Amino acid sequence: MLETLRWKKFSVLDKGFVCLVDVMGSDSAVVQAARVSYGEGTKKLSDDRTLLRYLMRHEHTTPFEMAEVKLLVRVPMDCWRQWIRHRTASVNEYSTRYSIAIDAAQETEPAEWRLQSQMNRQGSFGFAPQEAGLQLSEEERVFQEQARLLYESRIEQGIAREQARKDLPLSTYTEAYWKIDLHNLFRFLKLRMKSNAQYEIQQYAKIIGEEIVKPLFPLSWEAFLDYNFEALTLNKLDREVIRNLAAAGTLPASEQQFLDAQVSAWKELARCRERDECLEKLKELGLVIR
Question: Which one is catalytic: 192, 243, 273, 275?
Answer without folding.
Answer: 192
